[in-house]
Amino acid sequence: MFAPLDQIGRAEAVTARLVDAITLGLLADSEQLPSEAELAAQFGVSTVTVREALVALRQQGLVETRRGRGGGSFVKTPANPSTASWRERLRTVSLSELRDVGDHYLAIAGAAAKLAAERSSPEDIERLELATEDIRTATGAEASRAERQFHLEVAAAAQSPRLTREEVQLQSERGGLLWLPLEPHGTRENAYAEHRAIAAAIAQGDGELARKLTEEHILDAIDRLADVHLDLLAP
């Protein structure tokens, strides 16, 4: 998340990186950000650039600055968004675009699940189990966020920085669309069972099974989106 940027000195790039981290739940609500100097060193940019990015984040309501002892910049997690805007986005995309997004995500998430089974640490497995439990109890927009968090944890467990960056980018660009809390989605118990099976395969070190279950899970999501897309276009 704090890896140096490819293009040095771009406040927009710092802002985008932090917006992704906040909206995807990588940074928790009320969590204090590193100091401006620390962020500048981690991103490989100037403190002026970081300051500009923090101003943009404050304007978006994603960060608040507190003065005095214990002060600094603190995360403000956005309220659960309505699915209305994503429904409209789903209406405008084509079926071929949906399939293309699915193909891309299959490649990333399937590979991440396989590598996670081969490389994950006990701490990774514990985080996956916690993310799975979040899916069991979440509803509505929170269910969408929990789904995205689960797949981010799988990517992190793969121990591949490039795969993790790809997952973060896909989630920031398409995650809200891929994991819309739309019906029919099956019961909460079914969704929990799918993720429980993926997490179990990873914990058991069965890479091929983890990949297979993940790919089936994503294909089911794409098929469901395609059905809803056609319903939205129906007169």
TrEMBL record:
The keyword Nucleotidyltransferase does not apply. GO terms for molecular function: DNA binding; DNA-binding transcription factor activity. Residues 8-78 form the HTH gntR-type domain. InterPro entries: GntR_C, TF_FadR/GntR_C, Tscrpt_reg_HTH_GntR, WH-like_DNA-bd_sf, WH_DNA-bd_sf. SUPFAM superfamilies: GntR ligand-binding domain-like (SSF48008), Winged helix' DNA-binding domain (SSF46785). Keywords: DNA-binding, Transcription, Transcription regulation. This is GntR family transcriptional regulator.
